Amino acid sequence: MASRTSQQNSRQQRIAEMRRAEQSRERRNKFLAIGISTAIVAGLVGFGAWVLIDQKQKEKDEAAARKAPVSGEQTWDAKKLGRNHVETPVKYEMNPPVGGDHHPRWMNCNGDVYKNAIPEVNAVHSLEHGAVWVTYNEKADKAEVDKLAAKVGKTPYTLLSPVKEQAGAIMLSAWGKQLTVDKADDPRVAQFFTKYVQGPQTPEPGAACTNGLGEK
Question: Average pLDDT, stretch 159-166?
Fold first, then answer.
């Protein structure tokens, strides 16, 4: 009888020990889960804060780029550039033109890349809408033109076309602004885009760059 009681007591002790061990594992797992969750939350918060800081820095950099003058750019008095809609030929004082009277219909400038020369009077209308017009002549290296075409292709309110008679190999024009460069990776190209694509020089901000004249 005593032996049976001893066995029962021993069995109960083992069961109690197993329960304590199980409870201990549950507590450890709980603490571990809390720790992992806390680490994940902290990581997400930290990542979110980093993204926010990075975004703020980009905004500051872009704001600074918009304010800083673009080295080597030419500027014309926007108030002296005509803005009449005409359907007769217009003689511009600069090539490519950066403003002046122009055709009522604009060139499509939603990242449009034109293989052939386009009418100046239509391109000037695109500049009035806030577009940057990238042009090149035969002096420009094909690889550089391809890089510019890729940049234009992913940038709304831009267009690219050849202009055989222009003085510089590569030229960027906005309303009243113009820059000449030799290479597509010249840092002034990105600065010109940042500053003048729908920039403060735009006579008609927000006007369309689609549903205009396209390449035939």
Answer: 97
Spatial strand order of the sheet with 132-136 comes to 74-75, 177-181, 170-174, 132-136, 158-162, 110-113
pLDDT in tens, 168-181: 999 999 999 999 99
Ranges of each domain in the chain: 1-67, 74-196
Name residue, tokens 């290296």: 141
Pairing state between β 132-136 and 170-174: antiparallel
Question: Can you read off the two tokens belonging to residue 7?
Answer: 């066995």
Q: Which CATH architecture has domain 74-196?
A: 3-Layer(aba) Sandwich (3.40)
Per-residue DSSP letters for 58-79?
A: HHHHHHHHHHSPPTT-EE--GG
